[in-house]
Amino acid sequence: MSPTLTFALAGNPNCGKTTLFNSLTGARQHVGNYPGVTVEKREGRLSVGPREMAVVDLPGMYSLTAYSTDELAARLFLVEEKPSCVIDVVDAGTLERSLYLSVQLLELGVPVVLALNMMDEVRRRGLVLDGKRLSAILGVPVVETVARVGEGREELIREALAFAEKRRGPWEPLVISYGADIDQTLLRMEARIEADRFLTDRFPARWLALKYLEGDSDVIALGRANGPTAVVLEEMAATLSRHIEATLASTPDAVISDHRYGYIAAVLRQGVLKSSAARDRIAGSDSLDRVLTHTVAGPVIMLAVLYAMFQITFSLGQFPMDWLEAGFGWLGDAVGGLLPEGMLRSLAVSGIIAGVGGVLGFVPLIIIMFFQLSFLEDLGYMARVAYMLDRVFRAFGLHGGSVMPFIIAGGIPGGCAVPGVMAARTLRSPKERLVTILAAPFMACGAKIPVFLLLIAAFFPGNAGLVMFLVTLASWAAALLVARLWRATVVTGQGMPFIMELPPYRLPTLRGLCIHTGERAWQYIKKAATVILAISILMWAAMTFPGLDEEQRAAFEAERAAVTAAASAQEQRDAIDNREAEAVLRHSLAGRVGVALESVSRLAGFDWRVNIALIGGIAAKEVVVSTLGTAYALGEVDPQDTATLSERIAADPAFSPLSALALMAFTILYAPCFVTVVTMAKEASWKWAGFAVVANTGLGFLVAVAIYQIGRLF
Ligand code: GDP
Ligand code: MG
């Protein structure tokens, strides 16, 4: 009878694989580091009761990204033969270095059992290792062994058998975050690989994508022989490589290996290495982290950094923003003067310039904020933020793995919920992943920022930095509280352990910062010039048609005619024009919807104009600003009036600081934008995406009403 299960022994050279192989199989293989260029397959048999297993001794390797021929042969064996279980033999005395291979085996997804070998030496050196803790964190069995005397042999066999049974079927790759740039490219490559079914029968998609980024020549050659997808993947890898060269003066494989070591360092920090001597060895390189991630000082510094960032943004950004707003005001007047009165002028001035200009007016602030964010990100500080928040997150039924998706979604303002929702893929636990997907859209994404900025400029200009800081905290609070709520009601179940990795600090280059900032600013501008422009035109049409009917128009005409040649004639005529413009807006399609909703929305202090803007905001959140811009521009007829949108809103009696607060709360909470909803549906399901639209809007309305009604009591 041929054996049904195959165990492969993998590990660094000289970790004791062959010793273990001999002990398991009773073979008398030559113990020592064999330098063979090819693997002669050293295969032996192991019987447990009636069962017989094949055991394969692989050549030593440090990495699965093959540098030498025997590493390549070992990898080929894993991928081609798909052993039922890999016994990863680890020299427990050099855990940090040895785990580098283990992490890659886990990323490949093959079932792995860790044999912590040479425990006798470890004990002699006075190091204390916690194998159980390591097992809980990595999610694989860990057995302490002394291969030379056979210690741990029985337990190892038992665990390997049980795990091979348990993990029968498709491999389950570990997903590690490699930082925003690489993660996003990986996601796109994965999508492509899966869509084209490119070598998916042989490798997990993410692993294959990683090999491309690491520049693995063997995989690249294999890819080229397997169809046109290879060209696309190589191109994506080359683009990322250029980007990383330009921004970090590094290469993707260096960054990837940094993150793997960061991951390992984080694993060992979580109480795996107990003796102080050993812990110092790992943390010693990072004295900065002792301060920046200190239990008390860390969070204080984190809040101070965030607060300082907003203060700098607003104090530096005020002037260019004023100039830009004035510039769009002037442009509107100039274009208005050139075009004849009528639909075309209304579309150009009120629809396009007021709408898109309202969004573009915030470009200076966005650039200053993105620059600081890029600095913190490139420095490696964001990873520390995630590390610190891990503790907080556990209290809300999430875990540290949700921090990065939240940050990407706009936890540090300016992100986007779409990659945020996608980044939740790094979560292994389905419950926490779903809740992260549901909560990520509450973050202050780049599209909500102009909405907040507009309301702040109108009602809290003196405390802009502080209010923006509080809005950010409120977004986090909303995400955490709602996550807790869903974890207690609709997404119940046990959580999973998680490790947060800490890549090394790196001083960003000015060039890198400029590239990152430029890219983000450009994306913002591009969106304003395309999507927002299109929606602005649609919203303008909805706010213009159907026009007043003949009778109504005649009534206003008659009123105007009735104005006598009195001294106040011009004033009276302006007042009539204003009333007519408002009547047109109310009469329009959007106006009717806005007015119809007013009886309900009034509870939260929103008038019909705000209702129109909020409905538009479901298409894209910037549209709230562009729609308000159009709505106020349509209602305003005095061509001499050069008030900015924030001034108009501040002067409107329908608005108050209190209703502005309620509106900000609603903006944080209500339905995700259209693209996010589609992404949520793809990542979870349409059912959950629909749930988010309905539940978030309901929740947002309740909170807005509560703020407005309670605020009015004071
Ligand atoms: P391989 O290169 O991974 O196949 O390692 P070997 O099995 O050839 O072992 C390398 C060296 O480590 C040999 O000298 C072994 O005797 C020694 N060794 C193996 N396991 C242990 C152990 O658990 N404790 C100690 N102290 N030495 C071991
Ligand atoms: Mg050997």
TrEMBL record:
Q: Name one GO molecular function term.
A: GTP binding
Where in the cell does this protein reside? Cell inner membrane
The protein depicted here goes by the name: Ferrous iron transport protein B
The organism is Solidesulfovibrio aerotolerans
Topology relative to the membrane: Multi-pass membrane protein
GO cellular-component term (any): plasma membrane
Superkingdom is: Bacteria
Which lineage ranks, top first, belong to the organism behind this chain? Bacteria, Pseudomonadati, Thermodesulfobacteriota, Desulfovibrionia, Desulfovibrionales
Protein's UniProt keywords contain Endoplasmic reticulum = no
